[in-house]
Automatic annotation (TrEMBL):
Keyword Hydrolase attributed: yes
Lineage: superkingdom: Bacteria
Organism: Bacteroides stercorirosoris
Protein name, as recorded: Beta-galactosidase
Keyword Hydrolase: yes
Amino acid sequence: MKYTKTIFSGLICVIFFLLQLFALGVQAGESRFSTAGFYELAGSGREVYNMNVGWRFYKGSCPEAWQRDFDDSSWEVVSIPHGLELLPEEASGSINYQGEAWYRKTFSVPEDLKTKKVYLHFEGIMGKSRIWLNGKLLREHFNGYLPVIVDITEGLNFEGENTLSICADNSDDSSFLPGKPQQALDFTYFGGIYRDCFLVAHGHVHITDANYEDEIAGGGVFIHYPFVSEDKAQIGVKIHLRNESTGLFKGKLLLTLRDACGKEISKGVKSLSLRKGKADHYDMNLYVDCPALWTPDSPILHQLEIKLAGEDGVFIDGMSQKIGIRKIEYRGEDGLYLNNKPYRDKLIGVNRHQDFAIIGNALPNSLHWRDAKKLRDAGVRIVRCIHYPHDPAFLDACDEFGILTILAVAGWQFWNDEPVFSERAYSDIRGLVRRDRNHPSTFMWEPVLNETHFPKEYAYNAKKIVDEEYPYEQALSACDPGSPGSDCFPVIYTHPTSVSGGKKSVYNAGTLKEETMYFTREFGDNVDDWNSHNSNSRVHRSWGESPMLQQAVHYASPAYAYTCLETLYASQPAHVGGTLWHAFDHQRGYHPQPFYGGIMDAFRQPKISYYMFMAQRPSEKLDKLPAENGPMVYIANEMTPFSPQDVTVYSNCEEVRLTVFENGKKYIYQRSADERKMPAPIITFKDAFHFMDLKALARAGKQKEVYILAEGLINGEIVVTNKKYPSWRPASLRLRVDDDGLPLRADGSDVVTVIAEIVDEKGTVKRLNNTSVRFTVTGEAVLLGDCDIACNPVPAHWGSAPALIRATTNAGKINIRAEVLGEGVHAIAPCEFEYESVKPVARFICNPVEIQSKVKTEVTTHGINSEELDSMKKEILRLKKKISKYELREVEIQQESFGEKK
C-alpha cells in the first residue's frame, strides 16, 4: 500500500541563542558519555570536537540549500540535539511536522588537524538524510536511529571556512525501517538532527569505526570475555586497524586496564606491521586476578585504554572504553547464569521510548542519564529499548547504573516485500550489534520486527546475522513464539500464564522447553479495544489518587487473567522476567491521546505505581550501586477529602507500623514469606483514614496532631520512615530543579526540568487545585515553549507544574520565577529560584553568530490565497482521517494476532 502525505507548514515563532566560539580544553575528569562510540583519551593522538553548536535551521523544502554560497542568514540559529519544533505535552495523533528540514553550519577547522584523517559522526538524523560539505554530496543515509559517519578529510578547507549542509527528511517511507507511516504507528518519528554530532581526527594509520567499516564481527574495537570467575578473568580485545598513510607502518598496540579508582591492573603490548592501503584485525588478551565483576547490583566499570604508537614511540591514535567484566549465559534447565553463578532473581523492568515532553526525541545526554537514574532508583534491573536503537548516552547510563538492556532494530507491524526493505533491515541489524556490542548492559538482541508477520526467511537471516556479528559468547536473540522462524531463537517472548477461557494465543509459548529462555516483552496494559484504548492501566497524574492507585494494583496483582508482577515472580526458572509497558507516558502517531500507562509522566514526574515498583528492590543497602537503594516505605495517601479510607503503603521492609493521627489508630503489618509471590506485596491498612476525623481535629485547633506515619522495620529496628500531612490553605509556590544531581551544562542544548509546586505554609503540596503557573527565566537559560503550545502558563497537575529550560552557551546564573496569574491580597505567593549552569567538558567547533531578535514568519502559497489554503487543508485532513480508519483496523488485527486482544 502506498501512502502519501502533503504537508503545509510555515515557520513557527523562534527563540535565538547568543552563541560563542568555544576554545575549551578537556576539564579534569572524564565525561560520563561516550563520543562516537568511545571516550577521548588525552595524549593518544586522537582528538574529538563537539559539533552541536552554531547551526542554521529551516523547516521545509529548500532545494538550493546544499550550495556552499547559499544565503542562510535569515534562518533560525539552533544547537543540536534539535527536534524541528517544540510541541505541547499532548502531542499525539501525528500532529508533529513531517517533511524536509535543512541544517547548515559554517565552521573553521584547527590547523593542526591538517595532517590527520577527519570524520564527522552523527549519532542520529531522523529519516533519510543527505550530507554535503562545501557543495559536494558525501553521503545519503536511510535510517533514523543508527549513526551516520562521513570521511571529510579530502573536502576540508583549512585556509578558510567550510559549510556543511544537511537535508533531514522524516516523511513516511516504506523502503526502510520502520517503514510504517507515522499515522499508523504506536510511536512517533519526530525529526531533525536529534542526537549529537562529533568531529573525530586521528592519524592516517588508525583504529577504525565498526559502523563505518563493512566487516562481519569486526571493525573498530570488539571486547569480549572468554573466561570470567571471581578468581580470574580473561578479557579479549579485537582491534581493527587501517593504514591510509603513504608507506609501511610498523608500531605497537598498547592496552592498559584501570580499575574504578584509576589504578592500573593489567596491560598488554603487541608489535605489528601493516602495509599501506591495507586493514587488519589484531587480537590481544588481558588477564585480571580477583576481578571486580559487573552485575546489576554492583555495576563496576573499568577503563580500557587503547593506544597505537609508531616505531618512534609517538602515539598516533587511541581511545578509552568503559567496560564491565561480566559473562551472561543461559544454561537450559540450570537457568540463567551471571559470572558463572546461578542468577535466580527475576529480571523485572520496563519498556522505554526515548521521547520527552515538549522536545520530542531531541533529548540531550543528561535527560537520557536521568531516565536511567530514575528507573534504577525504582529498582528496575532491565529495560527493553523499543522499537528502535536508542541513544548511546542511555546505554552509557545503563552501564553505569546496572540496567540490563534488550536492544531492538526499528520496526512495528510492517513488512515490505520489496528486496530493498529486507536488505536495509539486515544492514540495520548489523549496525545495531556493531554499535552496542561492547556495553556490559547489553543482554538480548531483538533483530526481528515487533509484532510483524515477516517471512520465515527473514527470521532465520536475522538470527544468523546476530550470531555472525556476535560470535564469542552466547548471542541471546529473541522472537515471539507465533512468528515465522521462531523455532531457531534461543529466547522466546511469552507470558507465564495462559489466556483466560482456555483460548491459546500465539503470544503464549505453551509447553516450555528446557533449552529455551523465556521472557515477557510487554505486560500490564489492559485496553478495551485497540481503537478506543480505554484502560485501567492508563492514568494521567492529573486524574488523582484513586486512578493512580488502581494502576498500581493492576500492575502488581492478577486482577485480570494476564501477566503482572505476582505472576512473573511466581513463574518457572526458565521464565527469567518481564518488562512493563511502559516506563513513561509517551506520544503516539496513530492515536489522538498519548499513552498514559507510564509509572512516570512525560516530564518524568512519578505516579503512585512508581513507588510500588520501588518497593520490589532489595531491602539491603547496596554500596556499589550508584542509585537510590536499600529500605524504603511510602504512604500512598495524601489525606485529601477524597482520599480512600483504606491506606495503601509500599515498603520492602519486613514490618511496617502505621500511625494515623498522633493519638489515633495504630496498625502493624508483618510480611509472611508464605503469602508473597512478588518481593513486596501491596500493603493495605483497612478503614484507617477518615476525612471527618481530620476535620474534627482541625476544627478543634489540633492540626499538629494530624498526620499519617509509616515506619519500616528490619530485624525489629526502625530503618526508614515516611510521614504524610494533609495540605491546608495554599500559600505559595515552591520551585525545584529535577536534575538528579547532574548539573545543567552550558552547551546550548542541555535541558533540565523545573517544577513549581503549590504548597501550604508548612510546605505540604496542595494536590487538589486548578492553579496555572507562569514561568519567567532570565540569565543563562531560556524557557522552552509558550502559550501557543500551552507550555506557559502551565496548569498544575496533582499539585505541580513542570517546565523545561535550556542552557545558553555561557555558564552562569539562571533566575527562575514562578507565579500564579493575577495579583491579589490572598493570591498564592510567587517564588524565585537561582540555579547555575556549568562549563561543558567538550571542545566545540563553531563560529560566533549574532543574536537576532526577530525573523519574519512567512508561508509561501504560490498564488493560493489563505481561504483556498485553509479549504485545501481541511479536505486533505478529511481524506487522511478516512484512510486512517482502514489503517487503524490493520493495527487492531495485528495486535490481536499477537495475543494482545485484552
